[in-house]
Amino acid sequence: MAPGAGASERQGTAKRRGRQQGASGAGRERLRGSAPRFTAAAMAPIAWPALITAPWPPADVRSAGPGSLPPPHYPDGGVPLAQGPAPVPDDRGAARLMRRALESTVSGDPDGDPPRHGERHAMTTLYTFGDSILDCGRYNVHGVHPGGLLTRNDDRLFPEFRGQDLASRGPARLEHRAVDGATVRGLPAQARGLAIAADGVALLTIGGNDLLTGLLADAGPGLRAFAAALDAFLRALPIRPVLVGTVYDPTFGDDARNFLGVDPRLARANHRRVNEVLGASAARYGALVDLHAHFLTGDPSWFAMEIEPSLVGASEVRRCFWPHLAGEGS
Fold it and tell me: What integer pLDDT is reported at residue 270 of this predicted model?
């Protein structure tokens, strides 16, 4: 075959293949265009307000903080300025409304009744925000963290909790946003780009790293800034209820275990004040989960690296949150 003829035939073959591929591509486009598109009417992205980036902790708190501690990772973020859209129930009806919301989320029925045979459950979304209390998977070889256990228990590791998870009550998914090392200043960044489901519950643990990076030795202004930042985040977060965990004490109340170089009397007073701030926020936006009281009954096996939840600790955090998700909390 002459070279020119071969080249011409190859060009013709290429053109025919191109037309075939173009036709099949157009067919795929028509198929895509005719297929039903996924829409989630109950889901909408958060439109976060403008953020401020004032230094945290304040200068006077930074100078008073324990200088021997390396600073934790600070996620990018700031404090929302605008008021959020979610209403805050009055104190008298807050507990009742929260219980009904939780029961509705778990059962898929607005009255909290279990679905009848043949009915489909609504998908429950569990959101986790905050620090390493909820983002502690790197501190155990199984990568386990409380949100994962609450969504679907690992029956092999924790047979005691078989059937005590959201997946046992219907379709459930986890939206894990908590970040090891986070402070209150980083919370808005954790919710950036988040899509909100109609049936959802949020978990929040925050304050431990704020204490470690200055609030343990704070004289007042840092705690007020912490409270303001926390309230701004929760107001802007369009998820209700929010279950807020207190900051535990890895020393089990024993001053001899103090490893921070801060006067224990001042440190414990500020630890108590941070938990009081968390309690006040929980009363407005959901419910308080007292991790501090529960962890005082534990032992060192609940911790890794002195302050982080171990595998056992992750399960104990789950133990505290589960009654509230199951509608059994106070």
Answer: 97
204 and 288 fall within a common domain:
yes
Predicted local distance difference test score (pLDDT) of residue 260: 86
Residues 23 and 162 in one domain: no
Global confidence as pTM: 0.68
Q: State whether 121 and 12 are in the same domain.
A: no
Q: For residue 47, is it within any domain?
A: no
Q: 45 forms bridges with which residues in the sheet?
A: 195
Domain that holds residue 1: 1-35
Report whether 52 contacts 185 (CB < 8 A): no
Angle between helices 91-107 and 264-285 (to 10 degrees): 70
In this structure, the strands spanning 200-205 and 242-245 are: parallel
The one-letter amino acid code at 17 reads R
Quick check: is 45 in a domain?
A: no
Residue 308 amino acid letter: E
If asked whether residues 176 and 314 sit together in one domain, one would say yes
Same structural domain for residues 31 and 60?
A: no
Taking only the tens place, the pLDDT of each residue in 65-75 is: 333 233 333 33
Judgement on whether residues 279 and 235 belong to the same structural domain of the protein? yes
